């Protein structure tokens, strides 16, 4: 419960990223709102070519959409190189209805990080885009507001991710706040509770 309160508090502080664009399919309410709920989160290419930073991006995004956007993000991956499977079929395994793809552009600068992201939610059944957004910003790596979050993620992924935690959270939370909200059934809600995020 403390982690949830921390994340919700940080959400309020995260609005400094510039979301340049955001779009949702015009038929979302009648088609995808009840059909695209279970996701895999993929970061590709790796930010600055670093596997652990890619895993950080995907993990932050997975937890954020589970806690704040009502999706059931089941897994998260970080993959090197440019996407080869543009139809996402390799990621759309049984039980996955959509792919949340993050394409980052990250650069360490002095005591901070400049980052941009192109994000897409693609539905598995036909590879069509459900939602997309682009955002960018520049933040200091050390920020008291993200100290506990940095401790949490460095404990999970290693000290190398420390400079990226605050800036990544700020960029992704602002971007992912433009996602639509799916409608969950009672069974979906129970599944989400079992997921524990």
Q: Can you describe this structure?
A:
By secondary structure, the chain is α/β, with parallel strands linked by helices. It has one domain (2-195). Helices cover 34% and strands 28% of the residues. It contains 5 helices and 6 strands. Strands 1-6-5-4-2-3 form a 6-stranded mixed beta sheet. A hairpin with a 2-residue loop joins strand 4 and strand 5 (112-123). Helix 3 crosses helix 4 (162-176). The model is unreliable at 1-15 (pLDDT under 50).
Can I get a quick summary?
The chain starts with a helix and ends with a helix.
- Tell me the helix content: 25-40%
Please state the CA-atom Rg, rounded to the nearest Å: 16 Å
What strand order characterises the main sheet? 1-6-5-4-2-3
- Class from secondary-structure proportions: alpha/beta
Coarse shape: globular
Oligomer description: single chain
End-to-end separation in angstroms reads 10 Å
Total of domains: 1
The helix count comes to: 5
Mean pLDDT: 89
Q: What does the largest sheet look like?
A: 6 strands, mixed
Order of helices and strands: HEEHEEEEHHH
Count the strands? 6
Q: Which regions contain 5 or more consecutive residues with pLDDT less than 50?
A: 1-15
Question: Which percent range describes the beta-strand content?
Answer: 25-35%
């Amino acid at each position: 419960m403390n982690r949830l309160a921390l994340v919700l508090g940080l959400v309020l502080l995260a609005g400094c990223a510039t979301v340049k664009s955001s779009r949702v399919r015009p038929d979302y309410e009648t088609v995808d709102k009840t059909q695209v709920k279970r996701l895999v989160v993929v970061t590709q290419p790796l930010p600055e070519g670093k596997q652990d930073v890619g895993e950080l991006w995907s993990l932050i995004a997975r937890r954020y959409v589970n806690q704040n956007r009502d999706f059931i993000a089941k897994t998260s991956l970080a993959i090197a190189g440019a996407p080869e499977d543009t139809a996402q079929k390799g990621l759309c395994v049984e039980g996955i209805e959509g792919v949340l793809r993050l394409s980052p552009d990250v650069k360490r600068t002095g005591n901070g990080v400049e980052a941009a992201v192109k994000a897409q939610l693609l539905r598995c059944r036909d590879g069509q885009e459900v939602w997309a957004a682009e955002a960018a910003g520049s933040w200091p790596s050390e920020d008291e507001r993200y100290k506990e979050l940095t401790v949490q993620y460095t404990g999970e992924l290693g000290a190398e991710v420390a400079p990226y935690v605050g800036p990544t959270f700020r960029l992704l939370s602002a971007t992912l706040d433009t996602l639509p909200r799916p409608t969950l059934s009672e069974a979906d809600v129970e599944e989400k509770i079992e997921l524990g995020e």
